[in-house]
Amino acid sequence: MTHEEKCIRPRNERTAPVKTPSQALFVRRLLRWYRRQGRSLPWRRTADPYRILVSEVMLQQTQVDRVLPKYREFLRRYPSIEALARARVGEVREVWYPLGYNVRPVRLWGIANEVVRRHEGRVPAERAALLGLKGIGPYTAGAVRAFAFRRRAAVVDTNVRRVLQRVFFGRARPDRQVWALAERLLPRHPYDFNQALMDFGALVCTARAPACARCPMASLCRSYDRFGRGPAGVRAVRAVRPERARPAAAPAPGRRAV
DNA sequence: GTCCCGATGT
DNA sequence: ACATCAGGAC
Prior knowledge:
- By secondary structure, this protein is mainly α.
- Helices cover about 50% and strands about 0% of the residues.
């Protein structure tokens, strides 16, 4: 057992889990980076759970730049969850175009109806209630809890998964390990931390050609070496794709780089 | 694991 | 033409 693993304590509901020194440093650096480099997005300037919910459903498998104009148009058309519930589902589908994955507007409309009918028009804040709504999975439930209700909920999307796997694991790990780490990292006020983590994955620790040269985590990142810029790396600076880092010669199962 | 969607970059 | 990309349901 390493020194850092000895620092780990079981999570308590009321108190924040103890972080290792590396984990604490990561959180501090991430929040500092976010204050300077974080994006200004419309769903970060509202406290309306309905608007947060709309943004998060739109953001499922869809990038920010494509969501931005449709987010504004959609809320102009359906300013409240009651307005969305009253609409014809076929019309909601048309408004949704061209975001894609067109089952999402149907499910969002269904969620609006469920919330109006069974939750008195209020988006639920409890994880179990959110997961009971078709169209809300682990990611969206965490996002609504953290961003709309300021709960201490982890948010693991493809960006967060990539960042944590690279920085702390150095290779692909099962989802439950990534979620457990994301929960351990959460500071007392998780809103900015979660937004920062996603911005960081979208702007610095990108899937292809990550910007290691301007990455504040380089000194504690377990993948820094892998991208050809390691401490001893006097060799050519190539931001290769991790999947390509190893030639076609049979990569070891379960050891794939992230 | 598989399917769902469409804009964008190479 | 083809890979890539802020998930979730089955």
